[in-house]
Structure formats: structure tokens, C-alpha cells
Amino acid sequence: MVDPDGTAAATQGEGGGHVTVKTYVNVAIVLAIITALEVATLYIPGIPSSLLVGILLVMSALKFYLVVGFFMHLKYDHQIMRALFVGPLMIAIAIILAVMALFSAFLLLPRSH
Amino acid sequence: MADHAATHAVHDPNIGTTGLDHRKMGMWAFLGSDCMFFGSLIGTYLAYKGKSISGPSPRDVFDIPLTSYSAALLLASSLTMVLALAALQDDRVKVAARWLLATAAMGLHFVLNQVYEFWTFVHHHDLTLSTSLFGSSFFVLTGFHGAHVTGGVVWLLLLVGLAWGGRLDKRDHTKVEIAGLYWHFVDIVWIAIFTVIYLIP
Amino acid sequence: MATPAAFMPGAKAEVPTFWGVIASWLITVDHKRIGILYGSSAFIFFLIAGIEGLIMRLQLARPDNNIVSAQTFNELFTMHGTTMIFLAIMPMSAAFFNYMIPLLIGARDVAFPRLNALSYWIFLSGGLLLHASFLFNAVPDGGWFGYANLTSSQFSPSHSIDFWMLGLQILGISSMLAGFNFLVTIINMRAPGMTLMRMPVFVWMSFVTQFLIVLAFPAITVALILLMFDRFFGTLFYAPAAGGDPLLWQHLFWIFGHPEVYILILPAMGIVSEVLPTFARKPLFGAPVVIYSGIMIGFFGFGVWSHHMFSVGMGPVADAAFSIATMLIAVPTGVKIFNWLGTLWGGSIRFRTPLYFSLGFIAMFTMGGLSGIMHASPPVDLQQTDTYFVVAHFHYVLFGGSVFGLFSGAYYWWPKITGKMLDERLGTVHFWLMMIGFNVTFFPQHYLGLIGMPRRIYTYAGDLGWTFWNLVSTIGAFTVALSFLVFIGNVIKTARSGQVAGPDPWDGRTLEWSIPSPPPVYNFARVPEVRDRDDLWLQKYGDGHEGAPRPKPAPVTAAEIAAIYMPPTSFWPILLAIAMAVMISGLLISMYQVIVGGLVTLLFMYKFAVEYHRPAGGNRH
User: Fold this and answer.
1) What local confidence, expressed as pLDDT, does residue C405 receive?
2) In this structure, are residues B158 and B182 in contact, taking their beta carbons and an 8 Å threshold?
3) Which one of A46, C39, C206, C588 has the fewest CB atoms closer than 10 angstroms to its CB?
């Protein structure tokens, strides 16, 4: 099949060849551990709120990355697939943050009334 | 008239000039779009967080152990989903069907947990859609996620039905793969919702 | 099953019956026919919306007028705006996406032909639902942007807002499905040798537009869902008494609404980028820069939405941020204008109707852009917002811009689609009547806005000094209407006795001019190999370095044509669209209809999905 962008070569891994069942199980175990740690962090006595939020966000971002990268195979897929998902994801996150700011959820932008 | 089989063997209408499958590409584009959908719902929830003027607060009603269990369920179901795909790519159709069924079952369990959760909110805490901003935004956000999961369960059960009816095999791995992509997406949305809504104070 | 044998030379044509012809349009999956369906429907809705505009202008021609009541006037401006945006301009752009994108990229159809048909039938059902409101005397009246909490069940108790809300949801689904289809088509179905930078600029602008569609529509989907839940299920999203904020609607709506205006203008910009090089006989000046500008406009278009909200009290920080972003986005837009001018400069210009409309686009869109830049400053906008100055601005960019651009495309590609040339003299008359009429209608509205005339008022007192220019504006509107009659006359005359166009009547530069007019169902007998953005020009004339143009390839054989596989027709798209319409309109009638409609929809979705899935033990088709 003629391939104008020279991209066909990058589509290996389509059949899951690079990711073994062992890898999947390991990822699942790591995900379970992180989830347990997340819930445990909630019960640490006296933990400052900003630290708690920071830790939780980092851990969930890690879980997100593991599921998207390994289970959804995006780590091994063609960059087009990555662009189709990551671009919109970035825009969505930016909009969530903007809406939070506009509604003073961060108390960054004081209302003018 | 040209030889039908030869013609169709040469050209798979699902593969494009990049060598990638149209359907897989379309599914990733859809998932990008769905990020904006859930982003808007999550943004709404966060905009209204702490602004309800009456009614129970999140701390009053959330059952963290139950929702943690539900989160674990979805993560486990993502594992069974990739195992199903791997089995199908190995042409082990019966095994694949069983993993798909397990995925669907865990998804259904998740939905039932949510139904139970909603029921307790309404009947034990007097929190409904119209009680407060929290009630409205919580039920709509998690409700739409639950609807996505339900749709995924139906999709998976249909695939199981096709497999049992001898109409699914290694050649259909892309169809199962895109069902998997949808399923994992539903999982990662829950990762976001679980952290942002349930865990973060 | 479409048999290629029917297209072989000497094949006997079937005698078409009336119902056979109708059926063939209902079950078509051919992108060209779907494009014609979109274009015809869009034009009819355009006329309806135009009449709504004319009635408004009649009402405003004199002070203290009573042709229509205030309530009716609210319905008119709501339906005029909603119809023009969602049922006229967007589907007219979709007509060009459908017909032209596969031709421009050297493909035989889109990636998902049945999904393509489904998008059209869903669009039609949305337009019909919106207009069914007339039959039930519940015409939407909350403005095309339906601000909360006017749209709440407290302040809009009738079904009028429900028709609007559900109609828009349906239209959103249609647009998004088509968006996914074209994204995959453009990425994955380009002819060999056509790298992304060798794609025609119309395809690039359409590509950016599809991204905008699939990323912006979810925001309005959510806004409408929240409204639906407030109206039907008692949620409190837009309820101030419970702490809800009507501004949430405004934010979500404009997060969609601003990218939406780029969705409306980019396709027209793409058309202009094709027409100018053809009629200047020069390549597009700085084509890569035009492409990058389009991408930047699309991307940054997501960061400016609150410039529609400068008067709501967001505070100086938010105002400043959105103001700066809005001014920045004018840069890539302005860059394109200079590129278009650069294309014309030094070109060998042939003055034909497609070029007139593209030139008109440049002039009118620039004027609209200038008033737009004024709005970008919050203090200035506080004077202008909600006045006729804004009405003038957006009509300059949407009519002077999008509509002129779409007409340019219509005159340009009419020969390819129909095989006939639209009459050049009637086209010239159409252009000048429309150009003059449009400016007479809308230019005075800048002044009216600045001297204080608000938007969306159904009448005004005679001692405010607004009377004369309102009358002038109305005369302009009827001149525009006359120009439309000229266009319709041209279409009819051409259908009856128009000059036959060959494959390449304009001496074009891109692939669509290398095939017959109208194209055969399979578009290209042989998949082209592409070497350049203006590949056909290169084929015909060489690039000055090679010397002679490329030698003509060997003629296509019957065997090659017989080997072409085209997707067969299907009745699932229209059936599924009908089931969805029954389900969604059930929300206005009865829950049983929703449930039954929903179950049928699920069944039809399954049938659609497995239509080509093999039976037990069998081979796939």
C-alpha cells in the first residue's frame, strides 16, 4: 500500500506484539497499588490540604498515563492516534482550569461585584 | 465481471493510506471529543463545588470504601479487556469471549454499585437532583459516566453474543480493539472523577 | 449491490422509475449525492431564514410599527439566527465537504459512507424538529444563544425552548458524526504522494473545521443537557435562587460559540484560497503560511470565548486576558488576507463570477474584522455590545464573509457537480445586486448601533433619529432578496439550457478538474499519484524546470473500472435517523415514545453495525 507520509512502518505493535500478558498484569498490579495509596493518603492525619490535593492529582495522572499508554496501547501506536487524543485532552484540561478560575474555584480571580 | 473474492482480498476498505484502520482512528477522535464532554461536566461540578446553599455536603454522603471498590472494579475490568483482546489475536475465541464476559460483568457490577449509591443518597441523605447544586452536578456527572459504562456493557455483551454464535474470530480483532479503547476511556474518566470528586476535599 | 459493470462502456442503462429514483436518494451512501442533499436542504432553510429576516426588516422599516407583535419578533430573530447558522451555513459548508473533499484528495468516497448518510438524515430530522415548532405554535423565542435563565421553565413555560434545545442536540450529533468521518477521511484516504502539506488549502481549512466541530460541540451538548435537566427534572444548574449561576450557561455556550464562528468562516476561507489562484493563474501566495494561520486560528479560537461576555462583570483580570487573546487571534486572520492579496498581485486575472464573490469576501470580511477588532477592547465593547453595531459586525463576517465565500464555491464548482456552467451574465447581476444590497442593509447598522439602537427590539420611537437608516437598511434587505431571485433564475435557466462544461472549464489547478463533469460514481478511474499541491497544473504545464508537461497516461481500460469496488446502498442510515428522531421528540410527547424509540434506536444501531459483519461461519462480504 503506498504510504505518502512514510508512516506505515510505525504501525507495528498494532497486534499487541510489543505488550505481553505479563506486562498487562504488572500494570494492573501497579494500578491497584496506586489506588490503595490514594485512598490511604486521605486518612493521613493532619496532612495539609494542598499537599493532599497535589499527591492525589499526581497519582491519578500516573494511573491515567498507565491505562492510556499500556492498556490502550497508545505508547506503541502511531503518533497520529496520540495527536488525536492528547491534543483534545490538553484543551479539555485547559478549559476546566479556566472555568474554575472564572468561577473563583481557585479564588484567583476576584468577582468584580 | 471481475473475480469478487480476488478484488475484495486486495483491498480492505477499512485500512487507509497510512496503513492504519479507519475505525481505530475514528474511535481515538471520538475519545478526544468525549474528553471535552466530560471536561465540561467536570468543570461544571468544580465551578459549583462548595456553593450549595443547603442540603448535605459531599463529606456527609460519600462512601469512600464503596467507591474505591468500584474504582478497583473498573481497573480490573480494563485488565480483563486487554486479556480478551490478546486472546482473540491468538485466535482463542472461547477464551476471549470469557474475558469479555468478565469485563461486562464487572462493568455491570460497577453500574449496580452506582445505582445503590444513588439510592442511598436519595433515601438516606435526602440528596436528589433538585436538592442543591451538589445534588444536580453530582448526579448528572456520575450519571452520564454510568450511562457510558452501561453502553459499554451492552456493546461487550453483543460481542460475546457474536463470539458464541461463531461470528467473531481473529479477523475481527480491530472491532474488539475499538470496543476496548472505549472501555478503557470509561475507566480513565472514572479515575479522574474518583480523584477530583470523591477524594479531593 | 453497485455493480461496476453498469459503468462499463456499452452497458445498458436501467430505465429509472419515479419511486426508484426517490428510493435511490434515500438509500444512497455516495458522498456526491449526500453533498447535493445537504446543499439543497441548506438552500431551502436559507430561504426560510431569509424570509424571517425580511419580515423583521419590514417591521423595523418604520417606527412604532405593528406588522408583527413583540413575541413574534422574538421568534423571528431566534429562528433567523438559529436557522442561518445551523441549518444554512453549516450544512452548505457540509455540502462542499461532502462533494469536494474526496475529489480534492484523490479518493473514491469518505472513510465511513453509511455514517455519512446517517449524518445527513440526522441533520434533516433536527431541522424538521426545529421547524415543527411552527405547527405546534411553540416557536423558539429565546434568541439563537438561549441565555439562562430566560430559558428556564419558570420564564419560558411553553415548549418553545424545548424544540430549540432538542433540535440543537440532534444537529450537534449530526455535525460531530460528520466531523469524525471527515477527520479520518482526510488523514487516512489521501492519494499516494499527497502529504499533508500537498493537500489543497480548502481541505486544510475543512480539516481544522472538523477538529473545531468535534471539540466545540461537546461544550454546547453539556450546556443543553444541563438546561434539559433544569427544565425536565428540576436540577438547579441555572437557578439563581439555589446558588446556580446563569453565567455557567454563557461560558459553556461560548466555549462552543466562539469556535463555532470559526467553523462558519474557515470553509469559506478555504474556498477563496482555491478560487483566487485559479482566476489569477498563480499559486496561492505563501500557501504554507495560510495553512499554519488556519491551524492557529482554530487552536487559539478556544481561548477567546469570554469576549462575548465583557459586559457581565467577570472582573478586570478575566476581561484583560480574553481581550489580549482576541487581539492576538486577529494576527493570523490578517496574515491570510495579505496572502490572498499577494496571490492576486501580478496574476493574470480572469474576471468571472466565482472571482467576484471571492473578492467580495475579502473586502467584506475585512470590514467585519475591523469592527470585530473594536469589540476586542472591553471598554469599547461596553458601548457596542447589544447594539446594532454588533449586528452589523457579525453580518459582515457571516454574510459578507461566509455567504459570499459559499457562493464563490457554488459558482466555481457548479460545472463539476452538474456538468453545466452557470450563466455568467446572470451571475454578474446576482453579485452586484447582492453586494450593493448587502452593504445598503448592514453598513448603516454600524451607525445605528453607535447612536444607541439596541439589538432585538421589535420597534422604536420615531423621535430617536433611527428612522431614516432603518428604512434604508430595509430597502437593502429587499435588494438582497432580489439578488437571490436572480440566482434561482440562473439555476433554473442553467438546468434547462446551460452551457455544457467539460472536465476543466476554468483551467484549474487541483485534482477535481482531472475527471469528468459530473464525475462518475467512482470519481477516479485510476487513483492519482500526487506530486504537488497544484498537481493538475503541474501535469498540464510542468513547473518550468522540467520543460515539457508530463506525458498523458495510457487510457483507462474496462477491466480497471470493473475492478473498482464501491460501497453499496443501505437503508439503515435513514431508518436509524428516523428512530432517533422518534426517541428524542418523545421527550415532548410521552415517556413511552422515548422508551420505545430508544429500544428501536438501539436495535437499528446494532443492525447498522453488523450490516457487513459476516453470518455464522461465512466469509465477510
Assistant:
1) 98
2) no
3) A46
pLDDT along chain B (201 residues), means of 10: 41 88 96 97 95 94 94 95 96 96 98 97 96 97 98 97 93 95 97 92 82
| C131 is annotated as an active-site residue | no
Nearest by CB to B20, from A35, A56, A80: name it. Answer: A80
Q: What is the pLDDT of residue C141?
A: 97
> Which class is B19-199 in CATH?
mainly alpha
CA of C478 to nearest chain A CA: how many angstroms apart?
A: 43
Domain residue ranges in chain B: 19-199
Q: H/E/C letters for each residue in chain B? A: CCCHHHHHHHCCCCECCCCCEHHHHHHHHHHHHHHHHHHHHHHHHHHHCCCCCCCCCHHHHCCHHHHHHHHHHHHHHHHHHHHHHHHHHCCCHHHHHHHHHHHHHHHHHHHHHHHHHHHHHHHHHCCCCCCCHHHHHHHHHHHHHHHHHHHHHHHHHHHHHHHHCCCCCHHHHHHHHHHHHHHHHHHHHHHHHHHHHHHCC
- Closest-CA residue of A relative to B33 is A88
Q: Cis omega before residue C518 (within 30°)?
A: yes
- Cβ of B24 within 8 Å of Cβ of A81? The answer is yes
Which cell goes with C550?
508530463
CATH class assigned to C33-546: mainly alpha
**Other C-beta atoms within 10 Å of A56: how many?**
22
Give the whole-angstrom CA distance, residue C407 versus residue B76: 55
Cα distance between residue A33 and residue B81, in whole Å: 19
Low-confidence ranges of chain A (pLDDT < 70): 1-18, 107-113
Active site residue C466: no
Report residues of chain C scoring pLDDT below 50. 1-11, 621
C307 part of the active site: yes
Q: C-chain residues within 8 Å CB-CB of A112? A: 313-316
Of residues B44, B47, B165, nearest to C616 (C-beta): B165
Q: By three-state DSSP, how is residue C387 classified?
A: strand
Domain ranges of chain C: 33-546
C174 is catalytic: yes
Residue closest to A28 by CA, chosen among B109, B78, B65, B181: B78
Omega of the bond leading into C149 within 30 degrees of 0 (cis): yes
CB atoms within 10 A of CB B32: 27
Q: How many CB pairs under 8 A join A and C?
A: 46
pLDDT at A42: 87
What is the Cα–Cα distance from C208 to C263, expressed in whole angstroms?
Answer: 8
The DSSP secondary-structure symbol of C100 reads H
Cell matching residue A113? 461585584
Residue of B nearest to A52 (CA): B200
Chain B, residues 21-80, CB within 8 A of chain C, namely 22, 25-26, 29-30, 32-34, 36-37, 39-41, 44, 47-48, 51-54
Q: Do residue B25 and residue A49 have CB atoms under 8 angstroms apart?
A: no
